[in-house]
Design goal:
Elements (H helix, E strand, L loop, with lengths): L5 E7 L2 E9 L39 E6 L2 E5 L1 H7 L6 E9 L8 E9 L4 H14 L1 E9 L2 E10 L2 E7 L23 H13 L12 H14 L19 H18 L1
Parallel strand pairs: 1-5
Antiparallel strand pairs: 1-2, 2-6, 3-4, 5-7, 6-9, 7-8, 8-9
Length: 264
Amino acid sequence: MARSIWGGAISFGLVNVPVKLFTAVRKKDVRFHQLHAKDGARIQQKRVCSADGEEVPYEELVKGYEIAKDQYVVIEPEELEELDPESTHTIDIEDFVDLDQIDPLFFDSSYYVVPDERGSKPYRLLLQAMRDANKVGIAKVVMRTKQYLVAVRPVGEALVMSTMNFADEVVPQEELEGLPGEATDVSDRELTMANQLIASLSADFDAGKYHDTYRERVLDLVERKAEGQEIVAQPAAERPAPVVDLMAALEASLAAAKGKQKAS
């Protein structure tokens, strides 16, 4: 059973909706531990001073912000605590915007927003009103002494809160080198073929269709080795040579897509 990680309220105007937050995504990365090859024991990480090579106990550690190479400003915990944002336990919606105005680059982690017993009716009202208006609430919330910019949006029968990156955290495209501009010539025939290829590969999004095949193969390898099976490395498959001719590549891709559609 999922456990709530935060409790408070959604605030919009003078309306407060008591809610709880639940993690919406469980990452399933395969994690390995570092072991000593000689005896299989876990490797321990130690905090060592770069000046004298001595191990430093936890109580002697301080926070330092690097202002120049090897020059730090030491900040005391009490000084940071004075700057902590006030924890109001409210998700304060400041604006309602159209979802298509928010680039996915701005989204980070997501949480389900669930009402408590007192908040079912205003929660349902907010969910339905946002769905009817096709709007997303932009809000601020404090969690674990950190202030977040968030987007609250209806997803199915629940509200989902996604933490967002601030504008100065998103890398502007002006910093990128090598992007082709409008001066790059694309023929009408090439564009038509590309549009046809995209149309032939278009489908409704089905999340269950896609799998982390690498993670599945790694876990299968772990299971087989745990059972004592001998693992024989398979020779690497030869990769097809890249097609240099753009039109030839488009035509071959379109033919393969059409053949796949007929087969299905």
